[in-house]
Each structure stands twice: as C-alpha cells, then as structure tokens.
Design brief:
Blueprint (H helix, E strand, L loop, with lengths): L110 H4 L4 E2 L4 H5 L22 E2 L3 E2 L20 E3 L2 E3 L39 E2 L3 E3 L5 E3 L18 H26 L1 H7 L34 H12 L6 E8 L4 E6 L11 H12 L7 E6 L5 E6 L22 H12 L5 E5 L48 H13 L2 E5 L8 E6 L3 H10 L3 H15 L5 H14 L23 H11 L7 H6 L1 H5 L25 E8 L2 E9 L5 E9 L3 H16 L5
Parallel strand pairs: 12-13, 13-14
Antiparallel strand pairs: 1-6, 2-3, 4-5, 7-8, 9-10, 9-18, 11-12, 11-15, 16-17, 17-18
Helix pairs in contact: 5-15, 6-9, 6-10, 6-11, 9-10, 10-11
Length: about 725
C-alpha cells in the first residue's frame, strides 16, 4: 500500500478506523465502537484528526509513520459567518503532527461512514463553468503564529459550522442537525460523500477490481460554511455525483403496446372506406345516376306530390269483329254519287270485306288499267313473300389487284347516305358512307391510293320500257345501278330533288375523296378478295315502308332486283317484272292478263286490274292469321300513307267532299299523266275495315285526285248495314 507522507489530512465524518480522539481538554474519547460496516472507497484511508480554522468537523488522524502535511497556501476566506470565538481549540497549531492514539484493530466500516458528509466548499470559477464536474479539494490552510480554533464547544461537543441552505449550483441533500453519539456530537451521515478531483476526469467504465486501489494524494479542501454536494468516490478513483437517497417508488407498468400490424390494418381499412364513401358520394351526385335512381337531389326528382293520372280516352279503336257487316246495296248507295263524277274518266274499282272476303262493291274490277305507282304494291308484295323480312342489303369494299387499291362492291343498297353519322336522310335507317370509309382506313392502315367500283350486280338498261326520256334523272327517279348515295339525291334531306345522272360515279368520287385516294373508274372485284369494310341497309320491312310512304321509284326498283336475284332471275327490269308475277302467282294470286315492265310503276306499259290490288290488301288486312300469307304481307299496311297525315297523302283530303276520310283512309297512290290510282283500307263508322282499289285512266290529275279522295271518304261514312 502506498504511503501518504505527502498527503495532507483529509477531513471526514467517517469512522474509517477505530481511533481515540483527543478532546479539547486532553481527554481521550471512547473508541468508535459503533462504527458502521461499509465497503466504500475510503475504507483504506487512515487519516489523522486535524483541527481546522473553520467550523468544526470531524477529521481522521493520519498514521504516525506518515510525514507531516505540508503547509498549505493562503487560506481562503469563508463566505459564511465567522466561527464561534468562545469555542475552545482542540490543540495548538504546531509544525509537527498531532498525537494519535495507538491504532486499534480496524472494525469493518459501514456505507454511511465511508460516505459521510463533508463540509461544502466554494467552487472556483472553472468548476462553476462545468456544473457536471467539481474541482478537486484544496489544501487545508493552517494559521501561523497562533492557536487554531476548533469547531468544538466546551464539553467536547462540536458546533455546526453553518446552518444555511445547500450550496447553489447542484442538488444538495437535506440538512439535518447534529446527533449525539458516544459522548461526542456528530453530523448526520449520508449514504454518499464526494470530493471532486482538481483535474477534469473523463468517464471511465466501472471495473470490478479484486483489490481496492489507493486513491492519489489529494489536497485538503478548506472548510466551508455550506455542505458540499455529495460526491461518490468509486474504487477505481472515479468521482461522480452521488445519487440522492430517495425511497424507491414503484415503477408504473408500461402501457400495453398495441400490435403495429393491427393498427396499420385499421388505418388501411379506414382509408379504403373513406375512398369508397367519397367515390360513391361523387357517383350519386351525378345527374344521370341520381335521376336514374330517383334520389331526392336528382334534377328530375318531383318537387311536388305526384299528380293523379289523367283520364285517357282512346280516339282510335281497333276494328270490331262484331260490327255489322255492310251490305252490297248499302255500299253501292254510298258510292253511287262519288263514282259518277266525270272527272274520274274511266273508272274501275272494287270494295271487299277482309273479314269475310266478300266483295261489297264491284265496278269493272277486272279491267286492265295503268296502275302508275300502285305497281309498287305488287313489287313489295312479291319481295315480302319471297325474301326474309330482316334482309339487309350490303355494300362492301375489298382489296383490289394491289394492296394500295380498293374496290367498292355495290350490293344494290341505293339508300347509302352521304350524311355524317347521327344525321337522318329522307330514308330513315340508312347506312352511312363515313362508317365505310373509317373501316377501310383502319383495315388498310391508310395505304389505299386508288379506288374503283364494281356495279356488275345489276345488268341491262338503266331505264325501263315505257319510261319517258326525262324520267331518269328527274326529281322522282335516277338511273338504276346497284350503288349510289341517297337514291341519287344530291341533298339527302329533300325528297323531290333532281337526282344524279351517274349515281355510281358520284358514289365513287365521294368515297375516294373522303378516303384520300384517287377514283379510278369501274372494275370487277376478284373472287375471295380481302374485305376491308362493309355496311348494310335497313331491314327489308323498313325499306318497304319507306318506298311506299314517299313512293320512291329508285328504291322500289332496287327491292325488285333483290327478289329477282333471290329467284335466280337477272337483276334487270324484265327480270324484276317476271319474278314479281311469278312470285304472286305461286302464292295464289290471280295475275292473269297482268303486264309489268318495271317495279316502280313509272312505265306506262304496265297493266293491272283493280281486283289484283284489292286481293293483295285483303290478305294483308285479314283479321286473323289463318292465312299464312297474312303475316308476310302485313307490312304493306304499315307503309300505306295516311289521308291528310303522311307520305303522298299528307296534303290531301282537305276539301269538304273528302275531309270525312281524313285520318281514316290509308292508301297507296299512283299518278301519271292521265292516270290516278288509290288502293288501300278504310275504317267505316261502324268500326268495320273495308279494302278498296280505285283506278282512273284518261282523267286530269288536278280534277281526278279530289274525286278519288271523295270516293274513298264516302266509304268512311258508310253504315251500309
């Protein structure tokens, strides 16, 4: 163990070693038999008891073999109040060390004695700059030339050097008063005491030494008037603030940790739910959705109570099967006056009850007369009997002899419209050329540079026998070819407009221009050529309805050619005429003596009796479907113009003689120079359907038309029972 000859006496309140302290009167105190056991860092420091000029404290005597402590430097003036002058000095300050009692056997030291409280010292400025580190103790000053006053009072008791509070700059333990122990006054012991080193100490790990190393020599700190901050001297020599002795408080249990995954899952579910709510809210706020669902905020939602439905009285009633049957005499009486009108010229006509098939009025019904546009009843009847009612006429574009060539294959659809998509021509339901152009562009990738047209489907002359030279082109007809735009009309929205003289050429030029290619005339499409695009017309029933309503001659000829092609006949005027008669004959209609030269009725050479026209309408107007032909011919009735309401009868039945039939007469008209025909159905005042066919030849158009209208209107007022 190193010697402590150069080390001054350390003040301590510990009882590190059993000793006999000499009081002021020279008496020897009892050995510190109550020394507590301790394993502190000061257990190996036998320090002598030395009197200090400051307030009294307990000093440990240094062993005799140690050298006397060197004189300390000038003592620092204590900042606290002066010590009590009446307190007797423990001993004179002498150059030699004071006598020490003979050493006794060391008792085990307690923790309290090792860490007894030391008097507080005034920290130098350097220590104040570093509050976490304390300066080391200074050497204890000794007064020269006079006796030292001890802090001990008469009676062997020591006086507390200061009753003030703890020193500023750090936490201080609570002060307690002196206690009497073994005949001498001792200060309360704390669980730790600390004297800081003069040099700055770095934190060091705390080893677990087997033996306690001796601390380096430290100067004696001057006695202060305040208690120093408790410091702990570790066995390794490290000095650090002592932990304040506070009762252990129970550590509250940590809050239970929520599973992170569950928390994240909850956040994710919440976010998804919020997004769904927002999306649904936005969707429900849209007018189309809110209107369809009938939500309260919908624009179409009723703002008031729903009104009571108004009573509806049907103005049009279906034909009654129990209506009284007209008699021949009754009908003849009704028609006698109107039929005698000389404006009618040569008149032939017939009235039939379709419910019974009986003839009610017959006036030269077998006489062959020119029917004019009433011929369309024969053409459309043959088509309805022969063709599928859903037939749609195609127009194709195929690849030509080279990849940059396209050929329009005209399939006979003369209704193909030049109007943009969404706009309607006078022929409703027509396909649009723009659609065909778009298909070709997409299929070819825009590589088409040349366009040709194949019109080989139709053959023969472009006009029929019996047509006047100015019939085609005209405002009511065009040369008949299998490919054209809007039935040859330059303005698709106007019915009676001068048609194109070369409707196929017009189609070719328009298509090439919209495709960005060059029109290169006529060609025949190769067999099995690649199809670049295709569009189709409206179904057959709609085509029949259109051509009957406005009496479109060009469309009638095109439909007649579809019947001829389906029958294996050539697609010519003669082929259409022959196919029409053959088809009607095959379906039980009497076509004896009938002569046809076209399908539209423009030919003045056509000869048809009124009986045949009435027979076709009677089958179409039958009250039941017992006759299988009725279902096929029923579309004829839908296409018949309404008197004073639609088609070619829209501007008729306005005078006093014919107004009774307005809205009740539905009939196909036929007009040529000197020819007027009216064939259709009428509902009499008893609710009975009557079929009629009236033909007038050799009459003036202006005078014959109202005369025929008055004749049909008379049937409307017929009670005829």
């Amino acid at each position: 163990m190193p010697t402590h000859e150069d080390e001054p006496a350390w003040p301590s309140d510990d009882s590190d070693t059993p000793e006999t302290a000499e009081g002021a009167d020279g008496a020897t105190d009892e050995p510190a038999a109550d020394a507590e056991q301790d394993s502190g860092a000061t257990a190996h420091l036998p320090l002598p008891e030395v009197s200090l000029p400051e307030q009294p404290t307990l000093w440990v005597e240094r062993p005799k073999e140690q050298a006397e402590p060197q004189e300390s430097a000038e003592p620092q003036e204590p900042k606290a109040e002066a010590p009590n002058p009446e307190a007797p000095r423990a001993e004179e300050s002498k150059p030699e060390a004071p006598k020490a009692a003979p050493p006794k056997q060391e008792q085990p030291e307690s923790d309290q004695e090792r860490t007894a409280f030391l008097p507080a010292i005034q920290l130098p400025p350097r220590a104040q700059q570093r509050p976490t580190q304390q300066q080391g103790p200074q050497q204890r000053p000794q007064q020269q030339g006079g006796p030292q006053q001890s802090g001990q009072q008469p009676g062997g008791q020591r006086q507390n050097p200061q009753q003030g509070g703890p020193q500023q700059g750090g936490p201080q333990p609570q002060q307690r008063g002196p206690q009497q122990q073994n005949g001498r006054q001792r200060w309360p012991q704390e669980t730790s005491a600390q004297v800081t080193a003069p040099q700055q100490l770095q934190p060091q790990p705390q080893p677990q030494p087997q033996q306690r190393p001796a601390p380096p020599p430290r100067p004696i700190p001057p006695a202060g008037l305040q208690h120093a901050q408790p410091m702990r001297i570790e066995p390794s020599g490290e000095v650090r603030p002592a932990e304040s002795a506070q009762p252990d408080e129970p550590t509250p249990p940590p809050p239970p940790e929520q599973p992170v995954k569950r928390k994240r899952r909850g956040l994710l579910i919440g976010a998804v739910a919020l997004v769904v709510v927002i999306v649904v809210g936005v969707a429900l706020a849209l007018p189309p959705v809110s209107n369809r669902l009938g939500l309260p905020w919908a624009p179409n939602f009723p703002k008031a109570d729903t009104p009571e439905p108004a009573a509806v009285t049907l103005a049009l009633q279906p034909p009654s099967s129990s209506a009284p049957t007209p008699t021949n005499s009754g009908v003849a009486a009704e028609l006698a006056g109107p039929a005698a009108n000389p404006a009618l010229g040569t008149l032939a006509g017939i009235v039939i009850d379709p419910a019974t098939g009986s003839t009610l009025w017959n006036h030269n019904s077998s006489q062959l007369l020119t029917p004019a546009s009433a011929t369309k009843l024969l053409t459309t009847s043959a088509a309805l009997l022969k063709l599928d009612h859903g037939l749609q006429i195609p127009t194709k574009v195929v690849q030509g002899s080279s990849p940059d060539t396209a050929i329009i294959v005209a399939g006979g659809d003369v209704t193909l419209s030049a109007l943009p998509d969404g706009q309607q021509s006078v022929l409703p339901g027509a396909a649009h050329l723009d659609d065909l152009v778009a298909q070709v562009k997409q299929a070819s990738g825009g590589s088409i540079k040349k366009v040709q047209i194949d019109v080989s489907l139709f053959s023969g002359p472009l006009t029929a026998p019996g047509w006047a030279p100015d019939d085609a082109p005209s405002t009511y007809a065009a040369p008949i070819v299998p490919g054209m735009l809007d039935a040859g009309r330059p303005n698709p929205t106007v019915d009676e407009v001068l048609r194109s003289a070369d409707p196929a050429g017009t189609l070719l030029q328009t298509f090439a221009q919209r495709l960005g290619a060059t029109a290169s005339g006529h060609a025949t499409a190769p067999q099995g050529a690649k199809v670049l695009g295709e569009v189709r017309s409206a179904p057959l029933t709609e085509l029949v309805d259109n051509l009957l309503q406005i009496s479109d001659n060009t469309l009638a000829e095109a439909v007649g050619r579809q019947t001829a092609i389906a029958s294996g006949a050539p697609a010519t005027f003669a082929g259409v005429a022959q196919t029409t008669l053959n088809t009607l004959a095959q379906n039980g209609f009497d076509v004896s003596g009938v002569a046809l030269n076209d399908g539209s009725g423009l030919s003045t050479l056509n000869k048809v009796p009124p009986r045949l026209l009435a027979q076709l309408l009677t089958v179409a107007a039958a009250p039941d479907n017992k006759d299988p032909r009725t279902a096929k011919l029923r579309p004829l009735l839908e296409g018949l113009p309404v008197a004073g309401g639609s088609g070619t009868l829209a501007d008729r039945y306005g005078d006093a003689n014919s107004s009774a039939g307005k809205g009740w007469v539905r009939a196909k008209t036929g007009t040529l120079s000197g020819v007027n025909t009216l064939a259709g159905v009428v509902l009499d005042k008893d609710g009975r359907v009557l079929v009629f066919a009236m033909m007038s030849n050799g009459s003036d158009i202006v005078a014959a038309r109202p005369a025929l209208d008055a004749l049909a209107a008379a049937l409307r007022g017929c009670g005829c029972g």
